[in-house]
Amino acid sequence: MQFEVRALKANEGLVLLAIDAPDEAAALEQARAQGVAVLSARRQRALPGFGQRLRGRFPLLLFSQELVALLQAGLSLPETIETMAEKETRPDARKVLAAMRNRLFEGRSLSQALETLPDVFPPLYVATVRASERTGDLPEALKRYIGYQERLDSVRKKAVSSAIYPVVLLCVGTLVTLFLLGYVVPRFSAIYAETGRDLPLLSRVLLQWGELINRHGIGAVSALLVTIVAGVLMRDRVRGAASALVMRVPALGERVFVYHLARFYRTTGMLLRGGTPIVTALTMVTGLLPVELRERLGRATQRIRDGVSISTAMTECGLTTPVATRMLRVGESSGDMAEMMDRIAVFHDEELARWVDWFTKLFEPLLMAIIGLVIGAIVVLMYLPIFELAGSVQ
Q1: Which end of the chain is more exposed for a tag (fewer CB within 10 A), N or C?
Q2: CA proximity to 122, closest of 12, 225, 205, 2
Q3: Taking Cα atoms as reference points, which of 49, 58, 27 lies closest to residue 239?
Q4: Which among 333, 330, 256 is positioned nearest to 290, based on CA atoms?
């Protein structure tokens, strides 16, 4: 959930921060980690998913690429934003750019301008820009964010593309099964009822299921639609519950854990490379992790505050793998923790990609076999009484 935090910042006065956090206490902690004096915090009451839809309409990655190109061409930041606003043809994106341009002409920094548009620019993006303002190298910081986002998108697209065929196959198989049970089986049931013959046990069970689905099909579809709508309205809770359930599955939970770890280390490494302190970076990336891992990260952050090394704190709190632990120790020895965290993410992304390829190659034919067996069993049980009748006639 997102919180609106009012705070005082040195040399800037009153600022308004938009922070993603699981609760108000976590939002206040993240705000204080940014070096501000918190005045108040309240949960934003926007419609569910509205901010995500607005963020999805604004091409953040394309915006960053164009911003880097124009800045490297020699344009000043206000001129760059004004040029992008003039050439933009999409109304929503033009409004965002116009709002940024107005903030810049008021004398605000780019990070302050981005903070006023929390539905478009995520906190991680704002933090990257704010860190670059201290070093004076905005194009380089944006390049890091572009590379970070492209790697995340690559992993996500690979997972989605691998899941498309099994999902389509499962949906088609389910629809065919429901059609047979809800439409075809009841017709056979009426025919067999007229004959007055005793049917095999399995055939009777199948016919009873078909009659049940045919009788209560509208109610079942209505209940399914209500469940889907409720899931969309409460998708944060549903996502958290689903993540907790998947994490308990022995083989699958381990891979989901590795995915979250890779995302966590890549994001933390990018923030460290931009000059963000380790404790602040860990506090900012809390929202990227599922609820059960946020508690571990909170304990690890507190251990690091107490002076424990990063590798020890992460290992004690269960936020590493054996490979990640060794790489963190190497990073502490070399002093380049940002580079080592990025390597941890790359290693686990490659490991996860190999597992996804193996799993899809095994799961797709297995799913096809299961669907074929289910449909075949329904067809055989429907025609079994006819086969018996034909045998008795002979």
Answers
A1: C
A2: 2
A3: 49
A4: 256
Domain count, the chain: 2
Checking 370-378 for CB contacts under 8 A at 24+ apart, the result is 371/169, 371/170, 371/173, 371/176, 371/177, 374/173, 374/177, 375/173, 375/176, 375/177, 375/180, 378/177, 378/180, 378/181, 378/185, 378/206
Residue 5 has φ and ψ, to the nearest 5°, of: -110, 125
User: Model's pTM, two decimal places?
Assistant: 0.66
Residue 276 in domain: yes
323 in a domain, yes or no?
yes
pLDDT digits (tens, 9 = 90+) for 35-83: 777 767 777 654 344 444 444 478 888 888 888 888 888 888 888 888 8
Ramachandran region, residue 30 (left: φ > 0; alpha: ψ -120 to 50; beta: rest): alpha
Boundaries of domain holding 261: 164-394
What CATH number does residue 320 fall under? Answer: 1.20.81.30
